[in-house]
């Protein structure tokens, strides 16, 4: 494990560097109809940022993973989507379940077999015993068409993944009990698939765009069905948990394309209060921009110019080119978080320190103080330094790894 010297500000870093110091460190198998939800949507709520994460539940001193551990990596192609799904769901759920009052644990109510069945296509074909193959699939049955390619394209799989978080509260007896559930419903905006012919040869990938109307319909039907199933399966039976007695938050996520350098976005969420169906959808407006890129220049020109100035000034101090990049997170069109990556070729510890100094100084000088800033200096896939400036502060904190 690497150690880190924690330096609270750029000025402190310069003082310490002037003296004597020791560096320490810190595709597609894995598919129902329900009543459409007709409630009125609200517009553009903010998603809280979790500066303090939820406390985690340890059972008998041991971390207990969810039933679907590792399932997401097999279903969600883009790593950016996987990370945003988990963190974003916790942020949205904090509107209903305060981190001060609730503990968090990975989902324990949707089993791995359930998840596999729900994410597959609905299939009412009867097996040898006369039972439907997969009546619980939340993705549609294959569509009409003369070829398998046409049938896949005419009924795209909209549902990509389901993420579950459980929120626990302490009872008057000091025990932990389920106080709420949060579900992320992750939808494809583009359905990518391959097909295998009779000779076992695979063809593709093929892409089918999914319309906003299809996404809205899937959101309503799938979300309501998941809430209904959770409350039906867990109604105080063998597991002694009655999910009809707790709120269930459902957040809907639109995945990005497979080759994207940015995550997708949460587009809406709703709450099913105890004993009730899902309420009205609260619409969300979040997006990400990668710097430098034409998309960032076109959609966030002021931030793109600011990053380009940062990048050019950083390079003016060193003979070797430094190809910095950044990922910006936006809510309602306003930059909330900026994560900067500064890859370097390690030449010496002193040069690494010098680069870290300049990055820290430029972060203080170039970027507004109402934005959370994180900058990472990396070499050969190893992190050399970390610079942080939380929103609302003026000085940076610097960690140099040994």
What is this structure's SSE topology?
Blueprint: E1 4-7, H1 10-18, E2 42-45, E3 55-56, E4 58-59, E5 62-63, H2 71-75, H3 79-93, E6 103-106, H4 112-119, E7 123-126, E8 132-134, H5 148-154, E9 159-170, E10 176-187, E11 190-196, E12 202-209, H6 212-233, E13 248-254, E14 265-272, E15 282-284, E16 286-291, H7 294-299, H8 301-316, E17 325-331, E18 334-343, H9 349-366, E19 372-379, E20 382-389, E21 397-401
Parallel strand pairs: 2-15, 3-6, 10-13, 18-19
Antiparallel strand pairs: 1-21, 4-5, 6-9, 7-8, 9-10, 11-12, 13-14, 14-15, 16-17, 17-18, 19-20, 20-21
Biased composition (Low complexity): 132-143
Protein name: Protein involved in sex pheromone biosynthesis
Region (Disordered): 120-143
Q: Could you explain the architecture of this structure?
A:
The chain is α+β, with helices and mostly antiparallel strands. Helices cover 26% and strands 31% of the residues. The chain has an 8-stranded mixed β-sheet, sandwiched between helices. Strands 1-21-20-19-18-17-16 form a 7-stranded mixed β-sheet. The longest helix is centred in the middle third of the chain and has 22 residues, at 212-233. Residues 120-143 are annotated as: Disordered.
């Amino acid at each position: 494990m690497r150690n880190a010297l924690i330096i609270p500000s750029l000025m402190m870093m310069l003082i310490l560097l002037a003296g004597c110091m020791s560096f320490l460190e810190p595709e597609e198998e894995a598919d129902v109809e329900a009543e459409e939800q007709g409630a009125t949507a609200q517009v553009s709520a903010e998603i809280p940022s979790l500066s303090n994460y939820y406390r985690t539940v340890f059972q008998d001193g041991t971390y207990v993973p969810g039933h679907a551990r590792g399932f997401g990596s097999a279903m969600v192609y883009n790593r950016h989507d996987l990370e945003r799904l988990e963190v974003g769901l916790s942020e949205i759920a904090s509107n209903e379940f305060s981190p001060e009052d609730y503990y968090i644990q990975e989902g324990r109510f949707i089993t791995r077999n359930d998840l596999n069945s729900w994410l597959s296509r609905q299939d009412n074909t009867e097996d040898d015993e006369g039972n439907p193959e997969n009546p619980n699939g939340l993705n549609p049955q294959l569509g009409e068409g003369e070829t398998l390619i046409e049938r896949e394209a005419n009924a795209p799989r909209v549902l990509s993944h389901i993420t579950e978080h459980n929120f626990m509260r302490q009872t008057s007896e000091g025990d932990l009990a389920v106080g709420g559930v949060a579900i992320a419903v992750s939808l494809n905006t583009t359905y990518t698939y391959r097909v295998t012919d009779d000779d076992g040869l695979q063809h593709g990938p093929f892409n089918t765009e999914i319309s906003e109307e299809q996404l809205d319909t899937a959101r309503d039907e799938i979300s309501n069905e998941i809430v209904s199933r959770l409350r039906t399966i867990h109604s105080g039976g063998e597991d002694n948990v009655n999910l009809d007695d707790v709120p269930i938050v459902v957040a809907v996520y639109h995945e990005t394309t497979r080759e994207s350098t940015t995550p997708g976005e949460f587009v809406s969420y709703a709450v099913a209060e105890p004993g009730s169906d899902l309420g009205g959808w609260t619409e969300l407006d979040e997006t990400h921009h990668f710097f430098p890129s034409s998309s960032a220049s076109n959609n966030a020109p002021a931030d793109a110019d600011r990053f380009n100035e940062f990048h050019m000034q950083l390079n003016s101090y060193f003979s070797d080119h430094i190809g910095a990049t950044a990922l910006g997170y936006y809510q309602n069109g306003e930059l909330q978080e900026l994560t900067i990556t500064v890859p370097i070729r390690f030449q010496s510890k002193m040069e690494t320190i010098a680069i870290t100094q300049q990055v820290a100084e430029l972060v203080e000088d170039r970027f507004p103080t109402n934005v959370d800033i994180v900058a990472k200096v990396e070499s050969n896939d190893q992190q050399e330094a970390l610079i942080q400036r939380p929103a609302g502060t003026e000085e940076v904190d610097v960690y140099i790894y040994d």
